[in-house]
Amino acid sequence: MINFYNQNITAQWMLAVLMLMVPLLFVLFLLNIFREYTITACFLALFVPSLVQFFVAPFAKLTGHHQYLSSMLLFYSVGNKKYALPNGTSFDYLMHMRNVKPGFNFNKRLLVFYIDGLLRLVDKIEANEIEEASVFQGSSYFFNERTAKRLGFNSENTNRFLKIHFCINFIDLTWMYSLSQGRLSFPNITKIQTISISATTLALNKEKILKLRLSLTKSRSRKTIEVEK
Q: Could you tell me if 72 and 98 are in contact, meaning their C-beta atoms sit under 8 angstroms apart?
């Protein structure tokens, strides 16, 4: 399979623009059949968020709308010195995770990408590119909650808006979560936790983050990754 990011920038832009047409044509198709095949159109409409996320991702990255700390960790401002750290898109999964065996190895590879993103974030803080008063938030099934707390993250209930967002993207969440578990698994949206950390605390825990990355790259058989005390 051709890796999009290995192509020259002109080819990337051409492919990205062409990919934008896919969800648009799909929506036009649904509108065209809606009156005659209402039930079918409503069912197919469930896949629109997945199509948009996948086919718009390359264009969003090229235009700078999607900013990456690592291959699987995005980064953007939500205002008032707050930043969101969302997981990579379905397109990123295809480009960077397609040759990784589902289950433990898949989950470990994701964690390495997340840790690399956090270390990149620490570099930005130390270079004064991000204010120390800033706060970073993320919601994920793939980060061990106990480990997150040892790294300085606080855990809290996810707000209603994010839960609605997860419901809309339930199809993508299901197959992504299933790959990390190594079997078909359905995420429990009601139990999603939001983790947050201040820029100062993140920078102070740099050594712990580095130790976690070392344990992830050395680990071969452990099924639970924990930070050394």
A: no
How far apart, in whole angstroms, are the C-alpha atoms of residue 59 and residue 45? 22
Q: pLDDT below 70 — which residues of the chain?
A: 1-2, 140-144, 219-229
The residue among 212, 219, 220, 198 whose CA lies nearest residue 114 is 212
Nearest Cα to 87, choosing from 167, 172, 145? 172
Please name the residues in contact with 96: beta carbons below 8 A apart, sequence gap of 6 or more: 71, 72, 88, 113
Structure tokens given for 144: 């061990």
| Among 13, 22, 3, 91, residue whose Cα is nearest residue 59 | 13
Q: 135 forms bridges with which residues in the sheet?
A: 82, 198
- To which residue do tokens 């990255």 refer? 61
Report the predicted TM-score, pTM, of the whole model to 2 decimal places: 0.86
Structure tokens belonging to residue 47: 């896949």
pLDDT in tens, 203-227: 999 999 999 899 888 754 444 444 3
- Write the DSSP string, 147-215: HHHHTT-EEEEPPHHHHHHHHHTHHHHHHHHHHHHTS-----GGG-EEEEEEHHHHHHTHHHHHHHHHH
DSSP assigned state of 78 = E
Asked whether the beta carbons of 171 and 81 are under 8 A apart, the reply is no
pLDDT confidence of residue 107: 87
CA–CA separation, 50 and 27 (whole Å): 12
